[in-house]
Design goal:
Length: 646
């Protein structure tokens, strides 16, 4: 039995009135409630519209949701069917906003002559699945949303104005794809390198993401889609979103509709064409979602003079901080520029703010720098102490895509310790780790600003080339009691866009000038950061902001210790292959060798920890120091080591 197709919506009814709304919509079935070989519920349900023959069919406009309708998925109507019917009957007055519409009461004859026949209709919402009707007059009979849609000839299913998905046997993949379309159309849900996340906007210029769980997905889809499944008697009945759909959305590797989210920005950012993007929302070319007020920014072809003016204002902001040197002040300026454009940079060094003692303004300066990235609070956490902890903490943080991660009050013993996941987060555009308590992995982008504060905290080992240090040196014996005449953090909070505009003016003026480059040492991995945040300051006459990073690389105590260790090894054993247990007795025979073993951290009191020494040799294999390197011994002499000269 085949369902009757909708008649011409322009054909008048017997009453001379416009056709009821079920006939005005192209994808609404007739009262028979049947379509194809499947019996639908008694009330009307949307079905696939009749299309012209293939030869006469116009090309699909994939921007129109209705072009995706089929026997599994019927999109929600483009306009609310009740509103369309009110307009067709001449009852509609105007749109009052927030889903509320003013209308003339269909039962005006029941009103007293001195009462205006005006009423209101609220579109379907959380507590009112078919909408809400209210009239200024108290009718003798009950007049509610059900009365209104019945008067208009609309069924409750049509009045719900939701998408419809039929769960047909063998068509789960199509139902899942349709569900993904609905999820993507909301605009808040994205594919974040595997996990599904949704955008959270707690304030106009603040934004974050959160992982979407099964319960959230199910509740969202239930609010947007009416799912139907076969029940007894081969009849269709409405049901909750099936678990198979939820699991398919969560773990599918073939998402076709959810857009990829690579980063968040709380202000204008550099797009794929290296030009500033001033439009908030999702940027297809970069995968960046931005939240800011366009009216707060005005940046039109800035010149060097404009850059000099804004640089002067930034220096005025930080004038009362006691920097150890002009290069440290330049590093603070570079940190502000980095915060402003971090969402656009593939990589950037971490920012280390240290001082000799508490009360020197470290946290205050960190708060000011963070404001160039976000109006919200930084993600404040402790620096991890082990690689395992670092992997878990980093993945959890980065999946939320904060603008700034702040390791506040770091300790000398553990601060900026070289840990594999931390090293990778600063020199790779993404990290992939196992999800906590799950047997699967997730990938997260690393384009956030890492900052840390602490007393005399310095980066160690491989972190030396990944961290830009800013040293404060208060000239007071009691810096905590030092008086300041100005609060730059409070000043910037009043109009955060000013500090962002200043930073972008400097970087953009340098770009428009052709990105002139000063002759300074290059920094591996951070070439784009150097061009965007370091070279503009050099162009404007500031000292090299990367001075501390370069000095850290040059003054590598770990490298020095390795060189001394290799020299003593070469002196004692020449290039002979040696087993670790053969080397251990020489610590007791040669005090100088014992001292260097103590320096590299492989001694337990007066004895050598053979396990630590073995790991140290593996860690530094093939690494040059003082024109020497250590390598594994010949294959014929397993578990041996020897030092080779250049």
């Amino acid at each position: 039995m085949t369902a009757e197709r909708p008649t011409d919506p322009n054909q008048p009814t017997d009453k001379g009135q416009p056709e009821p709304i079920e006939n005005a919509l192209p994808n609404v079935a007739s009262e028979t409630g049947e379509t194809g070989n499947q019996t639908l519920p008694g009330p009307l349900l949307p079905v696939l519209p009749v299309l012209p023959s293939p030869t006469a069919a116009p090309p699909l406009n994939l921007s129109r949701e209705e072009d995706f309708a089929d026997d599994v998925y019927t999109p929600a109507p483009a306009t609310n069917p009740v509103v369309s019917a009110l307009k067709a009957e001449g009852l509609y007055i105007d749109d009052a906003g927030d889903g509320f519409h003013r209308m003339a009461c269909p039962w005006a004859s029941e009103h007293p002559s001195d009462v205006q026949a005006q009423a209101g209709y609220l579109e379907p919402c959380f507590g009112n699945p078919i909408g809400l009707f209210r009239c200024t007059h108290n009718h003798s009979e009950k007049r509610d949303a059900e009365s209104l849609i019945d008067h208009l000839g609309i069924t409750p299913e049509v009045a719900r104005a939701k998408s419809v998905i039929y769960m047909q046997t063998g068509e789960t993949h199509r139902a899942a794809a349709a569900s993904e379309r609905v999820l993507a159309a909301d605009g808040r849900y994205f594919n974040a390198c595997g996990p599904i996340v949704r955008i959270i906007e707690p304030a106009p210029d603040d934004i974050s993401t959160e992982l979407v769980n099964d319960q959230t997905l199910s509740a969202f889809l239930a609010s947007k889609v009416d799912y139907y499944r076969k029940a007894k008697g081969n009849q269709w009945e409405r049901c909750d979103p099936p678990a198979s759909i939820i699991q398919n959305l969560r773990y599918s590797q073939d998402r076709r509709h959810l857009r990829s989210l690579t980063g968040l920005s709380r202000q204008p950012f550099y797009g794929a064409d290296k030009c500033v993007v001033f439009k908030p929302g999702y940027d297809e070319a970069t995968g960046t979602y931005a939240a800011f007020d366009e009216a707060d920014y005005n940046l039109v072809n800035p010149t060097r003079k404009d850059a000099e003016r804004e640089l002067g204002w930034l220096k005025w902001l930080i004038r009362e901080f006691s920097f150890a040197s002009d290069a440290d002040r330049a590093a603070a300026l570079a940190a502000i520029l980095t915060a402003a454009v971090r969402a656009s940079l593939p990589l950037a060094p971490a920012i280390n703010i240290n001082a000799p003692r508490s009360g020197g303004g470290k946290s205050f300066l960190a708060a000011l720098i963070a404001l160039a990235a976000t109006a919200g609070e930084p993600y404040n956490t402790s620096y991890p102490t082990t690689p395992e902890e670092a992997a878990k903490v980093l993945l959890a943080m980065l999946l939320e895509k904060p603008a700034v991660v702040l390791f506040d009050d770091m300790q000398v013993q553990t601060g900026w310790k070289s840990l594999g996941p931390m090293n990778k987060a600063l020199t790779s555009t993404s990290i992939t780790e196992r999800v906590l308590s799950r047997s699967r992995t997730a990938t997260a982008r690393t384009n956030v600003l890492f900052m840390g504060t602490g007393n005399n905290v310095e980066p160690g080992q491989d972190m030396r080339r990944r961290v830009l240090s800013i040293r404060l040196a208060p000239r007071s014996e009691t810096p905590t009691l030092q008086q300041y005449s100005f609060n730059p953090v409070a000043h910037v909070r009043e109009r955060r866009s000013h500090i962002v505009q200043a930073a972008l003016t400097i970087t953009e003026a340098h770009r428009l000038a052709g990105r002139p480059v000063s002759d300074v040492p290059s920094i591996g991995s951070y070439e784009e950061w150097s061009l965007t945040c370091r070279q503009p300051l050099l162009w404007l006459g500031e000292p090299d902001p990367a001075t501390s990073l370069i000095q850290q690389v040059q003054d590598d105590t770990d490298q020095d210790a390795l060189g001394e260790f290799l020299q003593h090894w070469s002196r004692l054993f020449s290039d002979d292959p040696m087993m670790v247990r053969e080397v251990v007795p020489y610590a007791a025979r040669d005090p100088r060798f014992a001292d260097v073993l103590e320096e590299i951290g492989v001694m337990d009191g007066s004895t050598v920890n053979t396990k630590r020494l073995g790991w140290y040799l593996k860690l530094n294999r093939s690494r040059w120091a003082n024109s020497l390197r250590i390598e594994s011994g010949p294959n014929s002499q397993r578990n041996t080591w020897r030092v080779i000269a250049d």
